[in-house]
Amino acid sequence: MQITDSERFDPLTPANLQDPFSLLADLRREQPVYWNEKYSFWMLTRYRDVKAALRAPGQFSSATGAELERRREDFPESLGPDLDVCKRFVYGQLVTADPPEHTKQRHAVMSTLTSQMVGELRTAVEELTDDLLDKMQRVGGAADFVSDFAYPLPSLVIFDLLGVPSEYHGMLHRSSQAVVAFPSAVYRKDGETVEELGMVFREAERALDEIIKARRIEPKDDLISRLVTFEGVGDEMLPSELVALCNILLVAGHETTANLLSGSLRYLLESRELWEQLRSTPDMVPSVVEELLRFVSPVLWLSRVAAEDIELSGEVLRKGQRIQLGIGAANHDPDEYDHPERLDLMRPKVHSLAFGYGLHFCLGAALARMETQVALSRLLDRLPNVRLGSRQFEYRPLYFLRALKSLPIVIQR
Asked: What average pLDDT score do residues 401-410 get?
């Protein structure tokens, strides 16, 4: 049976979820500006197109929540309250906002999350890294790098940075995962998952509201305290907006970093000569992290909405239509990088789009880079003989993130 383009270019099929780069390469080569009829969105996969879209927020709007309203008809009316709370959490914050709302929130975060604050965190990150490695070495033998290291490290860092009490960690970790699960649930028309996510968000809403109220009364030396007392934010934003902002900082602070860490170790250990090359020249770690950001591409897609009719490569992207920007495809574009499917630790001048570009460039980029550099350096030093426990890799069913479910490794004591 002949496979149709609709099936080949469906980012949510099991095959494409596990190996998205084949899909991205085919799209980029054959239909770089592609209208996906099944999901009603455009897919852009060339580096030059993706970068141009990111640098033109007036045409490519980040306010994608309004487009969700057109998809409500795919769900029963009884799920209205669940869709509402999901929309507040997923679309009610700076990542999915345009100026002036985006400008106000971004300024607040940039003013409170200073480079000095990130720099002061390095010692804490080193200590957390060593604590996690201590636990793994004590147990020895088999471990799951995802659950034992890649997720705990950035999670603990961002919880500490924001000032989230330990009793809320598990529940807010679930709300972070719910944010990244929601878009796929909408495209799949999965009402059962939407209902479950709604319950998670309502619980998180109550918890974050309690933390915010406590910080208003008694501020501490943490990011939530700084945000709620920051002029023009803490006194002007609605409680629901502050809740959504704090939650998206939790998501941005650990989800993509965890995926970068696990993906990096997978590829470095798959090609053992790369691991040994990095062991012999550990001073390369900062530049290698840039190549890993490109190659791993922990974020595969970013969503935008056409703010006006846009003509591109003979196609017209109509005002109001959703557009998926292929970050992973752009980072593997042969017109931009020589031999892009090769992880090259010596690759010069890597300017990937892993953290976005322009107005919405990732606010946590410096923190993510620092955490990854520290983690890799300590892994190379303390677990030099670590090896993969399996060559079978399964990824979470998230079309826009590259997220390993697990990464079995073997630690020699």
From this structure: 96
